[in-house]
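Entry for protoporphyrin IX containing FE complex. Fields follow.
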Amino acid sequence: MMFTSSLGRKYVMALTGLFLISFLVVHLSGNLLSLIPDGGLTFNAFTHFMETNLVIKVMEYVLFAGFIIHILQSVVVTLINQRARPSKYAVNAGSASSTWASRNMGILGTIIFIFLVIHLRDFFFELKFGDDELGLDASGNVNLYKEVVETFAMLPYTALYIVAMFGLGFHLWHGFASSFRSLGLMHSKYTPAIVFIGKLYTIIVTAGFIIIPLYWYLVQL
Ligand code: HEM
């Protein structure tokens, strides 16, 4: 079966990974709107658009499927690898030929997963199933901005987000180029460019996601 062979599994990890990488760009762009000093009008209008646009609504299901497949497949790959590698050879896990991030993708992924569960409870479920306590802004859109500002007035949440974003950063540091490698797209001519873009992407996305909680925490001290 194409997706259960070891190569197929790598493809699935890589394709869902690249899809999630593109989601992060959209998500970060939307979240950065919360920094515009207009009382959240732009941010709430963007959220409203994302909540009501049909294409985005469909993409939301694809997104959740992407997360679930990426996570389940990683668990399967880890279990298979563990079974294939007797522990007496654990000596091989040295750092000569691999980076710290590449050897800890599972742990980093677990940190992101725990973050995601807390994150979805706070924002996504609040928006979808919250009891309307958010209220509306001056333009009549649900005031999710208020939730963002209030969440990052709290030190534990702010700290959690920042720690989780470092986990995400290391995960992407290895994951970006690794996806291209798994898809067989690393031709020697393009390898340096892909590695460079991956690192640039990782630094920008990680820094962007950290700036939001950090900014809101500091201005409310
Ligand atoms: C500063 C960091 C972040 C902030 C302020 C933030 C904010 C939000 C908000 C306000 C929502 C609900 C409204 C919306 O749909 O846009 C949301 C949903 C969501 N967030 Fe985040 N987010 C952050 C980081 C992340 C990260 C790093 C991930 C993934 C690893 C993530 C994954 C999701 C998912 C999957 C949803 C639900 C799907 C969706 O509605 O797009 N978020 N986030």
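NOTE: Residues 98 and 190 are 20 Å apart (CA to CA).
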